[in-house]
């Protein structure tokens, strides 16, 4: 079974530039998550999709971050403009469960490591 | 809001030593509890879970018991191996959509 695919693996940009990350979840998984993991911290949820609708974006810095999941399959996360504090690993995860299934297993991709200089 | 606190690392053990990684949580309601593991160069993967009080999750020799009275979910293994070297994350699911709230992670290094 193919896992969650993310690209690119690494990205280095200067502050105020734009960057985009791509995620392809496991086939058939309805729920998709984007997490931000700053060095030395646990992952923090940025946004959660159920199919192609947003169900939780309460911690997404909407002045600079945006995300979409067209057609309810793959997803892109964009940062524009980037700040130094955005340096982190951006993790995509998916699950087969529908919204409200608290004990559903999440499958994580390997992440995109972003360095903002 | 809901939160998870883990013991700080890094934890360094010799092979075959006993492992405990402490995890406590704060939550309203009755969350599900998880341990995820991140091996070097790999993505996070589920190690074990427990969905209600007094449940014990187990996998690959690791165990954790959901203790509601102490709001804890400590990870244990009787005899660690070098291959267990990884970062371990305790997490809870807030029963509102399935999202996970993670602790800060504990790095484990096992020496031969």
Folded structure, characterized:
The complex is a heterodimer of chains A (117) and B (112). Chain A is mainly β. In chain A, 0% of the residues lie in helices and 47% in strands. In chain A, strands 2, 4, 5, 6, 9, 10 and 11 form a 7-stranded mixed sheet that branches. The N and C termini of chain A lie far apart (37 Å). By secondary structure, chain B is mainly β. Chain B has strands at 3-6, 11-14, 19-21, 23-26, 32-38, 45-50, 56-59, 62-65, 75-77, 86-93, 100-102, 106-111. In chain B, strands 2, 5, 6, 10, 11 and 12 form a 6-stranded mixed sheet that branches. In chain B, strands 3-9-8-7 form a 4-stranded antiparallel sheet, with no helix packed on it. In chain B, strands 1-4 form a two-stranded antiparallel ribbon. The N and C termini of chain B lie far apart (41 Å). The model of chain B has no long low-confidence stretch (mean pLDDT 93).
- The succession of helices and strands of chain A, N to C, reads EEEEEEEEEEE
How much of the sequence lies in strands of chain A comes to: over 45%
Large-scale geometry of chain A: globular
Biggest sheet record of chain A: 7 strands, mixed
**Helicity level of chain A, as a percent range?**
under 10%
Structural class computed from helices and strand pairing of chain B: mainly beta
Mean pLDDT of chain A: 91
Oligomer classification: heterodimer
Q: Could you tell me the number of beta strands of chain A?
A: 11
Give Rg of chain A in angstroms. 13 Å
The rounded distance between the terminal residues' Cα atoms of chain B is 41 Å
Note the total helix count of chain B. 0
Radius of gyration of chain B: 13 Å
Topology pattern of chain B, helix = H, strand = E: EEEEEEEEEEEE
Compute the number of helices of chain A.
0
Give the low-pLDDT segments of chain B.
Answer: none
Q: What percent strand of chain B? A: over 45%
Largest interface: A-B, 31 and 27 residues
N-C termini distance of chain A? 37 Å
| Total beta-strand segments of chain B | 12
**Low-pLDDT residue intervals, each spanning 5 or more residues of chain A:** none
